[in-house]
User: Fold these one by one.
Assistant:
Number 1:
Amino acid sequence: MQVPPKDQTTIDDQSPSDRRVITGLGASGGIVIGRAFVMDRQYVDVSRTRIDAAAIPTETERLHKGVSESIEQLKRLKSQSANVGGAASEELGFLLDAYVHMLTQSRLVRGAEELIQTRHMNAVHAVSEVIDAIATQFSGIDDRYIAARASDIREVGLRLMRCLIGETDRAFETAPKGAILIAEEVSPADMARLQPGQITAFVTALGGAEGHTAIMARSLGIPAILGAADIIRGVSGGDLIIVDGGRGEVILRPTEDDLAHYSQRREDWRAARAKLASLRDVPSATRDGVEIDLHANIELPIELSAALENGATGIGLLRSEFMFMNKDYLPDEDEQYAELADIVTRMNGKPVTIRTLDIGGEKLAVSLQAEIGSGPNPALGLRGIRLSLRKPELLEAQMAAILRASLHGPIRVLIPMVVSVHEMSRARQIYEAVARRLRKEGHAIPDVLPPLGAMIEIPAAALAIDALARESDFFAIGTNDLTQYTLAIDRTDDQVAGLYDPLHPSVLRLIRDVIKSSRDRDIPISVCGEMAGDPRYTPLFLGFGLRNLSMSPVSLLPVKQRLRRLDTRNTEHQAARVMEQWDSARIAMMLDDFNDLA
């Protein structure tokens, strides 16, 4: 399919009644007018290898697992479709129910089972053969309804095949430069494959505004709308559409008035960003002269330029998962060293905090997935330091690469998902042992090892901050997971993502107490979650005594603009008033009132 170039934003032949607005969750701000690229899900690479008789039970189980995963995807889509409302929601719900039925002891599944057992086909090949057989049979029947059912069977079968090979919607690599991506779902691993300028915006049927995909979209400055369930049937490839990432709106087949209105809003947005750019080299200090360190969170190396362009004085969180995503092997020490050394060198003496591997939950590495699996509850499973201590060779290789890279500039090492002092003690033992090994092998590393710190993102760690201080050189508060675990809300679950509330009093109390305890012990502390990049929360953090914030590169200048208008004495008074409250809505209102006046 050929999509018209990005600048062709004139209206094709259509009637005003074709116009339609689809809403979702605004995950990353910005306005884009362009042509839709709908994910091509109609092709799956089928391996036709014959399996041994002994492998039949395993392959049959694999088929059933794929069926379960497909059904779970469809149920999530149906749950999300409830947000569409009205007849559209009901119609989409019926369709998705039909799809689930097709996967429940249907001819499709039974036929695939038979081919695995009698003809020793692998599961993907078996499903492919059954789809073709059904489609051939239905093609000879002159009936629109039957033809539609054949199309449905093919769609369901292709979904099952994609689950069986672990393939998600990654065909966007074929999208023309400047396209607007329309997909059922985009994973963090998919985001890591994006090339600069390839996709100008994306809209998905699934996902929440606080999930990792949304975080990466904000970090890359790509306007995004997630959870727009009706998008899967509302837009065709090549359609002219408007995406308003801030409001969470997609305008399909816009009118001339729409184009004029949103073109002006887009220009206003760009003008505001240009005005912010003038703040790049001015001090990040409050009105009463208190200096605040503003660092950047980095997901991918391509974000480094944006961090420097927006005036970051360091990298407060370098997520090392990018080195493991989309690879079917584990990168060794030398490969990791080369990647990290390049980033540290490009920072030209500015500090870099490198977080060790936090694969798990929604961030999966192909090279580790077969071994650790997804677990019944990935957010509570084998991830972060738990995985690193289970497989110490992973941690040893990372620490060795980090220590070698530390010769190129100042580095700190951050351990994720810490719960206990024992985990930090064990991490430090491995750290020091790796340093001794490197020196013995003749590698040059600093005499004084870079600081080793703990990420505070689990309530247990926040409550035991005094004990963790014994083994930690610094702390970094991860507000995303801290909020999620405190409230027992999966921020990526479409059904409850709207309940995710960082202003819940319990979350704020944990953050305040960790900051106070760290300052009392003279231990450096920063906040590196999404809250740090929201200017709305800046007065609260300053009032708590925080002096280091780390955020997405695109958030650096808005936060700097906000803090330069603040006086820390006023923020301390306001923070004390806020912490007397027990109602999130009241806290939000007080914070907004203060921001309006300050």
Number 2:
Amino acid sequence: MSSLHTLAFEVGTEEIPAFDLHKATQQLEKLVPEALDAVRVPHGDVSIHTTPRRLIALVEGVADATEALEEVFRGPSAKIAFDAEGNPTKAAVGFARGKGLDVDALERREENGAEYVFATRSVPARDVAELLPGVLEGVITGISWPKSCRWGTRGEYFSRPVRWLVALLDERVIPVEFAGLTAGKLTCGHRFLAPGPHEVARAADLLDVVENAFVVTSEQAREQRIREGVAAAEAETGYRAELPEKTLLEVTNLAEYPTVLVGTFDEEFLRVPEEIIVDAMLMHQRYFPLYDAAGKLTNKFIVVTNGDPAHADTITGGNERVVRARLSDAKFFYEEDLKHPLETYVDRLDEVVFQEALGTMKDKSDRIVALAKHLAADAQLGEADAADAERAAYLAKADLVTNAVVEFTSVQGVMGSYYAEASGEGEQVARAIADHYRPRFSGDEPPASDVGKVVAMADKLDTICGLFAVGQGPTGSSDPFALRRSAIGILAMLEAGLPVSLMKAVDASLSTYESAGIDFDRDDVRAQVADFFVTRTKVMLRDSGASPDAIDAVLAAGVDEPAEVVVRVRALEAARKDERETFDDLATAYARANNLRDASLGDEVDEALMGDAERALLSAVGDVEARAAVALASDDYAAALAALATLRGPIDAFFADVLVMDEDESVRANRLRLLNRFVDVFASVADFGKMAKGGK
């Protein structure tokens, strides 16, 4: 019985970008075991440990040798593999060659009453240590990086220059080669606290050696260390820190030995809008702001450093000087911007290109105003709200050319609201300017007011229609202009109760582009935009748990307004859930009627040719048609569905008592016209034929 060993493999590098490191860690968790399995190396658990300067894989239970293997392959039938004289055909020769065998090695065996040729290939056991150099080099080259580089005179690519390699199978060095380096027993520690080199006696010691050199070797352990440091800082200051997930992940993967410190900036900077301060610290410097018990920003912040904790005061002082410089810039930009009313920046939007074929941001601003006016009228906003929507649309993009937003781009919209208030604009206008980028992502809150929703929808829909008009709509997984996110935002606002027609708004938006002289096929682009929103609506409904057949049933009825599709699908799902058996029977009856009907005959029936079951169905259809029309007019889809459900009894009686395909041609045609009437009453609600087999 062979003994089992520990394999340790480390790739030492210059500092790898934080998010690239996170993705590489995830890749290695699959890449390492797959590489070993591909050459049949028996092994146990695989663990991955990464830091900004190293990628480590530890593999337990590695055997001395691969297992010998005998593979049996079934080939073509004997009739095809051999001719009448028993000589091998091209099929047999090709099959044998593909398995690395001579044709004489093929065997004939019977299987399930037929004779086939079989190839048996023996794969001998191999020494694992001999296989590992190639396997581990393949792991290095198998990592996919967003960006790679070459260094020195080498031709190999990696995220950052590789500086050392360690590869050990217990005490034995595995001579992996990459970029002019050959793996050995020497690793490096923390760049400043214990650079090394440090010798690793055996594979099982690698993590201990590295961790004793001031390196926290896993992303999870570094994050925990940071969280503990933040908790201590909160206890010390009495303040609360916000740790955005993305920024926390980044700082976790920027330090090998993270230490949490608390810095301070001058209170005078708190007169600058909070959003700029947070942007300067969080986005630019990766510092975490601290808030008091009331949620108000304080002049203290948290720094995560990779430096020597013994020099904490020096490190803190350096970071405070950096913050002071950034906030001084922010304060200067803000005060300079306030010297001019927000409206004066609108004309300068001509200096900013929106999209090469669609003009400048000033052109876009003019289109947003026109579309906002249309939406305000469609939503029947009051005169004051409509005026606020138009004014907010006019000013919404003005802050893009202010000093503060040019420097701190994440505060666009927010700064516009501050400048609007300072310029004497109304509170609702200022709030709509701040909110018009919302919802920014799925699950984000839409603007609070209808005025804000109108401006936000106008902005997003203008972008979608314009880019489709110039052939820049999303394709496959590529969506460089985030149009899907914009569509989801529009759908969220419609679902939140913005009472407008999306397709009328699309028409209004396309008209603004036609007026601007943009050349495009209006009907084709309208159809593309409509299909784009239908697809987004289907995705949103499926993600929320709606049955695909219910979605298809509503869409088949010709409904193209997303808000209406959503309401109808949910009403359909609720009705089916509450009365499942009745509803499924009704869907089946509808499908039966739909399959028999002949639309070319029309729906004008002759009662003189009818029996009792037919008259009962005709009366029921007429009654339900009227009730459904009233319900649909008031958007009460649940009532419309309830009315349709009452047709179950009459249609069941009809099919039980009546032979539709009667020998008398006039009777048969009359009954088919009645089925046409029955099916047509459903058409305005949903195509129940799509639901004949029930839901989930």
